[in-house]
Design goal:
Blueprint lengths: L7 E6 L2 E5 L4 E6 L4 E4 L7 H12 L4 E5 L5 H4 L2 H5 L5 E5 L3 H4 L9 H4 L8 H10 L12 E3 L5 E3 L2 E7 L8 E5 L4 E5 L25 H11 L5 E4 L7
Parallel strand pairs: 4-5, 5-6, 6-7, 11-12
Antiparallel strand pairs: 1-2, 2-3, 3-4, 8-9, 9-10, 10-11
The structure holds zinc ion (ZN).
Length: about 240
């Protein structure tokens, strides 16, 4: 058994902490009395999510999780977190069926198998399965957020920015006070299946609508000075 560890934990702005996990990233917003997560890693990342929360939230309770999209590597630890705290879980209305697993917009074996010979794909697939990527991660109780309308969580103003394409209801989150953008998988800066680093989309098999994903990426580039992506390092 290999032990999992995070790649980095960076204070992106006052009360905003960016965690590069083993395979996907999450962000922790810390306020006076509580903390809020944006995305939550794979199921096997639960201990790492808890560890990073301990480190930056210093005992403040977790009050909410904002979800960019319903993939296993972004919602995987939520059920484990719900066992510890009573949480509000929020996402765009269009993404909620995917988070509840009433539908599944996620790459599956039929798409992965013929591509196993491609750069990084076999290693990524092994890592994803080992991280609990095939576990049932459905979250039943999810509130819809209103896109464009500011929401205050743990003292931080957050605006949901629609960014469909990677999934139908994908949402990025803009924090206007820090002028930073949490992009989820609508904009990444690296991935095990990509040879390049820097702003990019994930390879085509990961996106439900490539054209929409391209449009979303273009729009996101003009929102915020600091990019906290779903995969890859933080970008200024
Ligand atoms: Zn994704």
């Amino acid at each position: 058994m290999t032990s999992r560890s995070i790649r980095s934990l960076t204070r992106a702005a006052p009360g905003v902490h960016f965690v590069e996990g083993p395979l996907s990233n999450w962000t922790i917003l810390v306020g006076e009395d509580s903390a809020t997560l944006i995305d939550a890693g794979y199921p096997k990342d639960l201990e790492l999510v808890l560890g990073t929360l301990d480190q930056v939230a210093e005992g403040r309770p977790l009050k909410a999780v904002l979800i960019t999209h319903g993939h296993s590597d972004h919602i995987g630890s939520i059920r484990g977190l719900q066992a510890r705290w009573s949480l509000r879980v929020l996402a765009a209305a269009a993404e909620i069926p995917n988070i509840r697993r009433e539908v599944l917009h996620q790459v599956d074996f039929r798409q992965v198998l013929p591509r196993l010979g491609r750069y990084g794909v076999a290693g990524w697939a092994v890592g994803a399965v080992a991280a609990g990527g095939l576990k049932d991660v459905a979250v039943a109780d999810v509130e819809a957020i209103t896109e464009g309308r500011p929401l205050v969580v743990s003292g931080h103003t957050v605006i949901a920015v629609p960014s469909a394409g990677h999934t139908p209801g994908h949402t990025a989150y803009h924090l206007p006070e820090a002028n930073l953008l949490v992009t989820g998988d609508a904009l990444v800066t690296g991935h095990p299946t990509s040879r390049t680093s820097g702003v990019q989309l994930l390879p085509a098999m990961f996106n439900t609508d490539r054209d929409l994903a391209r449009d979303s990426l273009e729009r996101l580039l003009y929102t915020g000075d600091l990019i906290l992506p779903g995969h890859g390092p933080l970008l200024r």
